[in-house]
Specification:
6 helices, globular, two-stranded parallel ribbon
């Protein structure tokens, strides 16, 4: 999610429709058991950054700590205050997907649809398999594809070439 503006753009029109469930997918980096992630909603603490109170990745003294994500657009130590609010009121669920899982999501869309998604969106795509196991009956799932993967080709090439060695 990074700051979460794209996710909020798709959530907002459905806010009052309680039949619609929201799942925000954060960048889990190397895993939530490490400090190398960008999962501010899942692992952050309340704080103020850039004039807004939200969930932030910070140390015990309240100093912002570095975030990590394979996706440059998700490499941010906080999240927009609306997402922090949605979590606090129970309107949205927030989960994290690792860098490695995001690559699997990218490969899935590329193979099935011929689309190279942005690494940011690849996190949400990676979560689909887990989500599908929880969805009962005939339901519609909407995934926000917020960008193209051409900007990420250098990173993708590096990761895929490391996989083949």
């Amino acid at each position: 999610m990074g700051g979460g503006s794209n996710a909020l753009g798709i959530f907002h029109p459905f806010f009052k429709d309680k039949r619609v469930k929201f799942v925000g997918v954060e960048a889990g980096g190397y895993g939530l058991h490490t400090t190398a992630h960008s999962a501010a909603v899942c692992k952050g603490e309340p704080g103020v950054l850039h004039g807004t109170k939200s969930a932030l990745l910070q140390d015990a003294d309240g100093q912002i700590i570095n975030a990590h994500s394979i996706a440059a657009g998700l490499d941010y130590p906080g999240v927009g205050p609306e997402h922090y609010h949605y979590k606090n009121i129970g309107r949205a669920e927030y989960v994290a997907v690792t860098d490695q899982e995001a690559i699997v999501g990218l490969k899935l869309l590329a193979r099935l649809e011929g689309i190279i998604p942005a690494l940011e969106s690849s996190h949400a795509l990676a979560y689909l398999e887990k989500l599908a196991k929880r969805v009962k009956g005939k339901k519609t799932v909407i995934v926000c594809l917020s960008g193209r993967g051409d900007k990420d080709m250098g990173t993708i090439e590096q990761v895929l070439s490391n996989e083949s060695h």
